[in-house]
Amino acid sequence: MHRLSCPSWTSSTSPLRHKHGPESDTMLKLRPNSRLEVLSALTQLNGRFYEFVPPSPKSKRHLLHESVTRHLALHVHYGHRLLRSYFAPTTSLYYTNKMASSSFWLSLALSITLAHGQVCTTGTGSLCLGVCYGMMGDNLPSATDVVALYKSVGISSMRLFEPNPDALQALRGSQINISLGVRNEDLPSIATSQELANSWFSSNVAPYLNDMTVEYITVGNEVVPGEYASYVAPAMQNLQNILDTQGLAGVSVTTVVSTAALSTSYPPSAGAFSTDIVEILRLLSAQASPLMVNVYPYFAYAADPANVPLDYALFTATGPVVQDGNLSYQNLFDAIIDAFYWAMEREGVTDVGVVVSETGWPSDGNGDFTTAELAATYNRNFAEHISKNGTPKRPQAYIEGYIFAMFNENLKPPGVEQHFGLFQPSTQPVYSLFPIH
Fold it and tell me: Which GO terms describe its molecular function (predicted)?
């Protein structure tokens, strides 16, 4: 898609800020009978942003100078709800009269998002979320076979915990969206040196950008609180500097936290952070990037089954289990997410969304608490829940999510940690979650 329309322009000095806002989407999601409209688009020229709207039939053909590097963003809406601000590189922008129809703009949005693996449909057997690709096993398939498996079952996004060269090479041209992790031990160097941050980016991201969609760069995994926590914000800033310099507005820099980052999570409205992460939150807010959160209702249930009902953990409760003021909670997942929303608001940050970077349920390792049936129930209900619902606090929010993990990994600690996989290393399903295409 190299020739797009640009008949009407207005300029501003900063990009739109709602790419990952609390009521916006990070994946174009086509629901049955949905009606999508492209209301505006945005291009970046020499550091300035220009917005244009679908043209009228009277508009004239317009051509911009082709030598200028630019990025186009389509803002796609579902009814009145923004679903996606998608940035894509373009080489030249044209307008012709056939582009005046609304059908053209819908086709344009779909063609661009399809080309980058961004479209996920419900009711088709596809898994409308991501899956974490862990590699702590000595019997796992090759990276090429893993990517083929993702594609065969319709998984649209992959989380990599570190920039594994074999995996990145296998992902070229796959149309799978990538969340790419920075190893915890690399944080000090990236945080303290822009030159070393540039080197990391040049080695692990830049070579793949032409034929791969990197959605997120996650700066550390569950390091807040901890010995690496102080490096997260400066490392994020140094990587963001690179994205800004190169005009890569479609990549978000963030970090991954667990519920250990909360000092209080019950009731959700009492949510508060256990450590000072204001600088991180302000960076996320400034770039309209989400906070990534690992959410595991299983561990809360397994630790206290007398007080955490199983149906509350599995999304199967038929009525409210927890009442927090005027907000009613039927599942623990929503309560945890809202605790993070409340904690961020307590720090004065109200415009940062949440992406679930890990969630899941083990299929073995802890007796009756961990069966294939329970794991399948949780993961199916999780996928269904986030495809249709926000949370009681933010009911219009769309929450993107990643299931942990693709495979059972035999080098993880014995017990439940080895049994979160959707597949055995042989690529046989541990349980039936979706059909093989």
Answer: hydrolase activity, hydrolyzing O-glycosyl compounds
